[in-house]
Amino acid sequence: MKKLLQSVETKILVFILSALLLNNIHTKAQGSEDSCLAMMLITPDHFDPLLIHFTFIGNVPINSFQFLGNWDFGDGNTSTDSCPNHQYSQPGTYTVCLSFSICIGGGLSCHDDTCETVFFGAVAQIENIDGSLNTFYSYPNPVSNQFHVRADSNKELSLKITDVSGRTVLNSMVRNDEPIDAAGFSNGIYFMEVTDGTRTLTRKLTIQK
Length: 209
Description:
- Strand 6 and strand 7 form a beta hairpin.
- The protein is an alpha+beta fold.
- Helices cover 16% and strands 45% of the residues.
- The protein has a four-stranded antiparallel beta sheet. Strands 11-10-13-14 form a four-stranded antiparallel beta sheet, with no helix packed on it.
- The chain starts with a helix and ends with a strand.
């Protein structure tokens, strides 16, 4: 009887140890999966607030490999690059999503995703108490038929557009978001010069029909 009890106790102990071992392996695998974290850095271009630089800054397990990521820029465009640049066609609020998975090894992998809702197109981080011109940009760029100019000045602006030879193709007064007709422009590179009477800034414009 004593030997029988010892045998039963031994089997129970082996079962408990086996269960703990299996649970420990599962916990390690789960821990590896939990170490995946999708995070993004969103940086508007210094000269064009609609050109956005995206960077993956999340966490991945040590010694993992085969990073597979997908960006959804919220305007119908996507990318599989880890650090893509994306040109938005017009200002607005967009929901940007990043989804990625990565191999850990030993049959394990992990996955995470995140989304951020952001307004793109603002002339940001510019203290402009007196409304003088500090920056401006146009959208969309490239342009097909018409474009808009946006600036941090609340004044009417003088806009002059020249082609690469220096010939003036447009000289007009404009306000923020006023549509400008480009139907008569030929394909190519142009230069926009805008002034509020105090400061003058120049930007490049591409016509592509």
